[in-house]
Amino acid sequence: DDVSRAEVRSALIDYAGNCVDVNMNNNAVQIYTCHGDPNQSFTYEVDGEIRGWNNLCLEANGSEINTWPNLSAGQVRRATVRMAACNGSTFQKWTATPAG
Prior knowledge:
The protein is mainly beta. The chain has no helices and eight strands. The termini are far apart. The mean pLDDT is 80.
């Protein structure tokens, strides 16, 4: 069976209604007011990759992951998120879960 798959692009929106935005000059990822341009459009792939308009993947840079103290919960892991060439690494795999 040959099943067609349609690409669905959507914005990634935070709790305050702002969008994940890829800077068109240097591919830096930032939070910015939603404006609907292609640099705020992403696809969630079956393998867990999130691809941007530039066909790069959203990546939590593993070499830059740090542990920071959190007064209410002990330790919290934080990382730099960026767009990078898709390579199938675990740093480029994401899971979508319902908000709330």
